[in-house]
Amino acid sequence: MIKDALKDATIRMRSSLQSLQDDLAGIRTGRATPALVERLSVEYYGAPTPLQQLATFSVPEPRQILIKPFDPSTIKEIEKAIQVSDLGLTPSNDGKVIRLTLPPLTQERREELVRVVNARVEEGRVAVRNIRRDVIKDLREFEDEKLISEDDLKRGEDDIQKLTDEYIEKMNQVGVEKEEEILEV
Predict the structure, then answer these.
(1) pTM (global) more than 0.70
(2) Which residues pair with 101 in a beta bridge?
(3) Is there a single domain that holds both residue 148 and residue 117?
(4) Domain containing residue 86: CATH number
(5) pLDDT digits 0-9 by tens, 113-140
(6) Distances in whole angstroms, Cα of residue 155 to Cα of each of 26, 137, 159
(7) Residue 83's domain spans which residues?
(8) Read out DSSP for 105-168?
(9) I need a labelling partner for 184 at 20 to 30 A (CA). Which of 92, 102, 141, 154 fits?
(10) How far is CA 145 from CA 1, 142, 151, in A?
(11) Whether residues 42 and 131 fall in one domain
(12) Beta carbons of 182 and 102 less than 8 angstroms apart
């Protein structure tokens, strides 16, 4: 029973870590990467659709992203989605493809992005701690229902705390790596 709770917690914590990594991939650094725009929501025939379902991406130069829509009639909607996003990029198109040129980041913008990264990492840590809280609550209910002993409860709480510490450290490491990437000139 405790093993099942820990296995579930591990899956949920791994999912939180993956979500953080995906989220941080969309934060702009000095280099162009398709992850910046892949998950942008574009209004496509009245439905919000991720950009990655509407176009292919390439990086012809270190500071440029090339977006080639499958349907050329969606260029205007894609441009609009990029402009209203918080990327701070201005798209230019030639009727077939959209080019995004990333300007060099100012020191002020880098510091702002680092604050955003730290906030997202903290959200990830909160998610992991919430998972720990839920599992400990479940373990205490098992003990109240006499499904596990008091010693098993204590061991389970220790195990979930170790797991929590491990995933929080992984999140901190992901945050530090992203911070270094942003501050790299």
Answers:
(1) yes
(2) 64
(3) yes
(4) 3.30.1360.40
(5) 888 899 999 999 999 999 999 999 999 9
(6) 39, 14, 6
(7) 34-101
(8) PPHHHHHHHHHHHHHHHHHHHHHHHHHHHHHHHHHHHHHHTTSS-HHHHHHHHHHHHHHHHHHH
(9) 92
(10) 13, 5, 14
(11) no
(12) no
